[in-house]
Amino acid sequence: MISVLAVDDSASIRQAVKIALHPDCEVTGATDGADALALARERQFDLVITDLNMPVMDGLTMIRELRKLPAYAGIPILFLTTEDSGEVKQQAKAAGATGWLTKPFAADQLSRVVKKVLAR
């Protein structure tokens, strides 16, 4: 089973990701980047889906830290956020993001993107 780490300070978004990817993926939730890094150091995930704006540690900082871990050097990381500026997207790509989805999102859209990035 595909293991996904969903990082968002909104419990409803984490739940929506879980529902959208069920039954193909096992989704573990994290409330911010620091929580996600702790989980990533404990176990290996096949995919990370993260928000950008979160308390404690934002998504860009989290991605930069994840990419320093050898186990996460090539793991797909998707942003799922309300941000849509070209500048922020460039920063995300430079940090190591694989792709970008804008909230609100459709479950089938998220599922298609996840399948696409995992097939690479």
Describe the structure.
With 120 residues, the protein is α/β, with parallel strands linked by helices. It has a single domain, classed as Response regulator (Rossmann fold). Helix content is 45%, strand content 21%. The chain is built from 5 helices and 5 strands, in the order E-H-E-H-E-H-E-H-E-H. The chain has helices at 11-21, 33-42, 59-68, 86-95, 107-119, and strands at 2-7, 25-30, 47-50, 77-81, 99-102. It has a 5-stranded parallel sheet, with helices on both faces. Strand 3 (47-50), helix 3 and strand 4 form a beta-alpha-beta unit. Helix 1 packs across helix 5 and helix 2 runs parallel beside helix 3 (59-68). The longest helix is centred in the C-terminal third of the chain and has 13 residues, at 107-119. The protein is globular, with a radius of gyration of 13 Å.
Order of strands in the sheet with the most strands?
Answer: 2-1-3-4-5
CATH class placement: Alpha Beta
Global geometry = globular
**Poorly predicted runs of 5 or more residues:** none
| Biggest sheet layout | 5 strands, parallel
> How far is the N terminus from the C terminus?
17 Å
InterPro entries: Bact_response_regulator (IPR050595), CheY-like_superfamily (IPR011006), Sig_transdc_resp-reg_receiver (IPR001789)
Pfam families: Response_reg (PF00072)
GO biological process, one term: phosphorelay signal transduction system
Keywords: Phosphoprotein
